[in-house]
Give the backbone structure.
Amino acid sequence: MAKKCLLNLKVNRFNKTLDVMKIKATLKIILITFMLIVMNGCDYIYSDPELSLPENAENKIAQIVNMMDDNGQFSGAVLISVKGKIIYKDAVGYANIADSIPNTCDTKFRIASFTKPITVMLILQLVEEGKLKLDDKLTDYLPEFPKEKGEDITIHQLLTHTAGITGESRIPNLIDIEKEYYTRERLFNCIVKKDIVFKPGKGNEYSNFGYSLLGLIIEKVSGKSYDELLQEKICKPAGMKNTLGDITAQPIEKRAIGYNYNYFTGLEIASFLDMSFVFGYGHLLSTVHDLYLFDKALYSNKLLNEKSKELFFNKYGWHYQKCPYGKGSKKIHSNSLDGSVNGFGSHTQRIEKDTVFIVALRNTKEYKKQIVIKWSDYMMSRILAVMYGEEYDLPKKSGAFEVFKTLQNSGAVEAEKLMADITNNQTDKYYLKKREFEFFNQQLLDRGMVNQAAEYKKFMRSWIRS
């Protein structure tokens, strides 16, 4: 009997060991799967859909853009082309709110970081001409750059953000120094004063200043100003007549004003930025039509030869991304780039296999969130769904913000009524997210509005309980 009990005990222990091993193995599989998803950008849901443009595509796209305009989520211009033909082109909102000047497709917007591909192109053109090499040193062209910091930095590293040049997030007084005018020399000295944040080639940090240095190199090598070379080597061959460097103090026809959204007071003119500070990485103005012409030119050899285009799309310029579209988790392979600068944003997508080009330029944004003013990918995923035959939701407004705004303007009773109406009757018009409620509750607390914050929190709790 004792031997049988001992045997059963050993069997039970063995079974428990097997169970533990199975659990560990399962957890390991889950962990490996998760890591593969992260490392590969969710490749397992990446698809290569066929373009299936419906006959009423223009109307469907217009509905998305106009609803976002009506919701106060987008102000700007949008252009879409397929196989070189424009299928949609329109603008909504105001270029100048105070003077009631509407945005048009000829409005010039600050294109923010879409300036970077232009800078890359100018560098690659100089490489084609034999005037510089990608493995040349920074100090070969800007010998004033301290050797102890820059003698190991290459052009390639500046292009790929691996040079160790500081990113703007490390600059504590950025909001103040970007308001001042910078000559090229002053901008160079501003960059030089910053420490190298890692040994060149041994890390990665998104560095706008690195692209400013590239802009300085372009001018030094070519013997021309950035804008002169831009017009000569890119704009003229591509037929782009409305792309130029933005000079803050200079009147420029049809230039939009940028606005930021204040949660308590609404749209306000964005904080001042002197465009001399963002030279080389964010200082250009353009229109949706000019960027369409830029895209068209890239299907020829007007701007770059085949070898340079390979570098432009695969290594340095307009990178490939996996972009979401439709309601599910599907993604499409696209040359995609977002840019953001005070009061402005740009978004471009180029799907080469279908000769699809989409550009949205906007002149409203939020400082940190995308709750009231939606980033362009909110629009793009729906537009791509129209073009590639996927289901999509029409744009909705943030219920958390509408209740927050009603509480400010009309009081707790009206806010409670709206909350009940949204929850019970208007789920097709509004969406509700807990993290947005928490965000706006914190906004009230930060302004010392403790009583309103308490009322607002009640609405959130009642919704969660329901």
Notes: Residues 2-7, 36-44 have pLDDT under 50 and may be disordered. The chain has two domains: 57-387, 397-465.
